[in-house]
């Protein structure tokens, strides 16, 4: 039967104190293009200027986002269904 400290000895034998240099793009390539820039944009969340994607929005767009954000899941699904039906009707008219 294993001793009570056997698990700790095993875990400590698995530890590695090797220092890895993650600065090399050859050893650590970017997994998905653009992820580094996206992650860097969130390092300083307190800024005075709006995000780039929000700069092009008009006040009507922002109001629509607020309205959609306040809907429950069921209400949002109804809204999407209504938009799908509207798109279908427009397709029939063309």
Automatic annotation (TrEMBL):
Cite a GO CC annotation: DRM complex
Identification of the protein by name = Protein lin-52 homolog
Family assignment from sequence similarity? Belongs to the lin-52 family.
Lineage of the species this protein comes from: Eukaryota, Metazoa, Chordata, Craniata, Vertebrata
One GO biological process term is: regulation of DNA-templated transcription
Which Pfam family, any one, appears in the UniProt record? LIN52
Q: Where are the transmembrane segments?
A: none
